[in-house]
Amino acid sequence: MGLKLFSKSYISIDGSKFKAVNAKDNNLTLSKLDDRIKRLDEHISIYMEELEAYDHEEGRRLSKDELQRKLDVCKERKERYEGYRDTLEKSGESQISLTDPDSRLMKANEGFCVGYNVQTAVDAESHMIAGFLVTNSPTDHGQLTSVASEVKADYGVDVLESTADKGYECPEDHADALANGIVPNVIQRDGSCTEQVQFDYNEATITDAQKSSTNPEDLKACLEAAVIPEAYKDFLTDAQIVEVKEYTSDVAESAVLKMTPGQMRAKALEGYFVRDAERNLVYCPQGEILRQKSIKRNGMIRYCNKLACKKCKCKCTIQKFKEADFNKDTLIKA
Description:
By secondary structure, the chain is of the alpha+beta class. The protein has four domains: 111 residues, 2-Layer Sandwich (Nucleotidyltransferase, domain 5); 67 residues; 46 residues, no CATH class; 83 residues, no CATH class. It is built from nine helices and 14 strands. Strands 1, 4, 5, 6, 7 and 8 form a six-stranded mixed beta sheet that branches.
């Protein structure tokens, strides 16, 4: 006799943070590495000056050998940090954990911790755990489709309805969900009851068989042709074909592409925010490096450096730290 523990029609998804065996001091972000390398450069300069002046002054607290050892330690540490930074820039990652390489720094209820974000799907009727997925994503943003797809495969159903809180709001992820037979009911941050999702339009003739099918390929074909599949007639209200205008960069910004990092920093010191698209960073008017913080819903890339702003004497914002938003094609702004 089989037990019907799951309704196999509706699931609720949420994320929980679990600490990893990795101290916060052993987790390095790009901004933290930039700050440490800068401080090491200052220490190295001081020790170099101390060594050069050693033979000309009396009564120094540190011997020449001690100064040399401190200088060597700073150089070794700087070389190690630069290696970590190069690795992150080449991989596209924003942080690295030295003890548990897969763990990431993320916000938890008790503050920040280095750990994992475990996505759990619960059956709506029985409240039994239907599936889970261990991720190192700091937020729940864009995680709905991945965990719901696994549950849908385990259930063996054609269409699965899911619900989640506003932390999962991500139109791109919800479009993927719909294309894979998953209905995403996600609370909207603005309190509205509807959400707009976009698909790349593909003009095609949709047959009645495709329209009534629940095969992911047919669902996607219908949605890309602006036709609502039968399976979604109670969830999707309308389909419209609209033209989306692409942003084209200013011709003057092409000069930034030819600049070296040193030239970009020099340009920034003239009073600009200059974006190095290849390294995905921004130089601020004080010459500090701003790293990518997030990508907004409208596609704008947000950059900041909380550590640099905290020490900066030239406050360019009334907020605690400056956040600079760039379109993917924008390279310079005042």
